[in-house]
Write a structure and sequence with these properties.
There is one protein chain. By secondary structure, the chain is α+β, with helices and mostly antiparallel strands. The protein contains 12 helices and 18 strands. It has helices at residues 2-33, 39-50, 53-63, 67-92, 94-100, 102-114, 125-145, 170-198, 200-207, 276-280, 313-319, 348-351; strands at residues 260-265, 272-275, 285-292, 303-312, 333-338, 343-347, 358-363, 366-367, 377-379, 393-399, 422-427, 437-446, 452-459, 464-466, 468-469, 479-487, 490-500, 522-528. The termini are far apart.
Length: 529
Amino acid sequence: MCGGWVRRALAAGSGVLAGFTALAVAELVSVAVRPQASPVVAVGGAAIDRTPAAVKDWAIRHFGTHDKMVLQLGILVVLGIFALALGVFALRFRRTGAAGVLVFGVVGAVAATGRPDSTGPADALPSVVGAVLGAVVLAVLVGRLRSPARVSDAGDRPGQSAGSGGGWDRRGFVVAAGAAAVASAGAGVLGRALNAAGGQSAVASRAGVVLPAPVSTARPVPRGAQLRVPGISAFRTPNSSFYRVDTALVVPKVDATAWRLRIHGLGVRRPVTLTFADLLGRELIERDITLTCVSNEVGGPYVGNARWIGVRLAELLTECGVRAPSRGGPADQLVARSVDGMTIGSPVDDVMDGRDALLALGMNGEPLPFAHGFPVRMVVPGLYGFVSACKWLTDLELTTFDAYDPYWVKRGWARRAPIKTESRIDTPKPFARPRAGTVMVAGVAWAQRRGIDKVEVRIDDGPWQQARLAAEDTRDTWRQWSLPWQASRGGHTLTVRATDRTGRTQTEKRAPTIPDGASGWHSVVVTVD
């Protein structure tokens, strides 16, 4: 009986090793295709595409920028459990169990070829080749565990179960398992290394970018825009701290020298294909613009302010013969496509109404980081990112809202989504324990395209008190605020609200992020010692 349990455990381990072989070989084969075709990335991308919007929002809320890592770990855990069970099953039904490994290949191949960025049937190769070799490994290992008297896959002879103590090829199993483990590990390491090396041309192209001086510089940030209050957000968010919310499991690394942007579609009288050098050679402008993600909960972290440099999008569209619908143009939607297949739709009127809508090339004085869209991304003040901020941009198509639903609209989000007036308490933090006396309450407020006119703070159920506003940079950037509070001992609830330059005060009514952004007042609870 003890020997039977040992063989079952080794069979389970054989299943895991077969799964590892399938993934490692697939990683190596993906070098000849593209990294995004590897099964974990492909299945993860397919899972993201098919996940309900509410679940995605929950994942972003709870895991933040680590949501993709959690998803990949989840996929590996599920595959591991499946592989364990398959190994035990194969001990009794070797051929059927080995064939079950091919399920890995089928799922990965379907996911890879069904992705929006799929380049064709070749995307199935990594999953298929990996699964075939994984099946061979499982068949060989389980064959060493089976008794020499074992019969066909129809089952065992009466009285001979997989748990019986018949002889099995211990030496052969150890040799085969060791060889498979070493070969698979080598294939996986080599595949990772070659895929990483494949991105070196993109890294080199970014390192070689010298951003020209803009013909129109951002005005100097006024004195007093950054309050000297410990704990408040920096007026300008560093690139390393800027939020990232997208669906890319693997950050695309695009070689700027090979990058192209196509502008075409309804009402485009002069279609054009541009290179990165073409954009660098145009007149560039520099602007401070605050971006906000629609997945930002009230008081959430998915908002940041950066200095962007890029090309005016409206000028490019005008040169292509595009007219805004308010001026008789036939297209009311601009669909931006990313190299990873993402589609984002923006109102044409908004990108051509005079605001500083950009094809951004730089962020905070350097070329765009890969995670934030290098070589080119869109930045449109006043619109949530899911209807404006396409990263790794490669295509701009003029169409209509009636004719085409972009990625997020298909999943229940709004077609048009101007940013709502919001405010946030940065300090004190929730559940902080400040000492009695003067406590600085401070934070940020934003209402892009409208500007912040007033911020008020309420202590418990007391009257609203007007906070001191920091100097305003532009109406497209957030604005800091502060209020000295004479804090008394005990528990307190601090609440903030903002009023924009149109005279509209943000609503108290709570709304979820879906379909067009959260609303409500931000509150924190503290205990004063």
